Amino acid sequence: MQGMLTGLLGNLSLLSYFAKKRETEVIVVQTLGVISIYVVIAQLAMAEAMPLPYYMVTSVVVATGLLLNFLNYFGMLSAGIWRFWEDFITVCGLSVLPQVPHFLSHFYTTLNTYAPMLFLIFMCSSWLLWD
C-alpha cells in the first residue's frame, strides 16, 4: 500500500513538473500513471484493505492534482495557486522520501522510518511558512 501511495505521489510530482514545461507526451504518460495507480488504490479501498478516511484524502489529492495540472497546462490557473500546489507537492514528496529505503530494505524499524519523515514535514513546513 505504501509503495502505491509513493508511486502515486511520484507520478503527481512529475505530472506537475512536465505540465509546467508544457510537454504533452510526458503529461499523457504521467496522467495514465496517476489514473492506473488510483484505480488499484480504489480496488484496495473497496476490499477494505485501505481505511476509508485515507482513501478519501487520497481521492481529494488526486482529483485536485489532476485538475490543477490541467488548468495550469491550458493557462487557466493563477500563478499563486500554482506556486501553492508546487510547494504542497514538494513537501509531500520530501515527506515520503525517507520511506523509500524502507521499501528497498526491511532492516528499518517503524520509528526509524517515520521519525525522519515527521522531521522533514516539520522542516519543510517551517521553510514554506518563512519563505
What do the pLDDT scores average to?
Answer: 82
What is the 3D shape? globular
Provide the low-confidence segments as ranges.
none
Sheet with the most strands?
Answer: none
Portion in beta strands: under 5%
**How would you classify the helix and strand content by structural class?**
mainly alpha
Task: Tally the beta strands.
Answer: 0
Radius of gyration: 16 Å
Structure description:
- With 131 residues, the protein is mainly α.
- The protein has one domain (2-130).
- Helices cover 83% and strands 0% of the residues.
- It has 6 helices and no strands.
- The chain has helices at 2-21, 24-46, 52-73, 79-96, 100-104, 110-130.
- Helix 1 (2-21) runs antiparallel to helix 2 (24-46) and helix 4 packs antiparallel against helix 6.
- The longest helix is centred in the N-terminal third of the chain and has 23 residues, at 24-46.
- The chain is globular.
- The protein starts with a helix and ends with a helix.
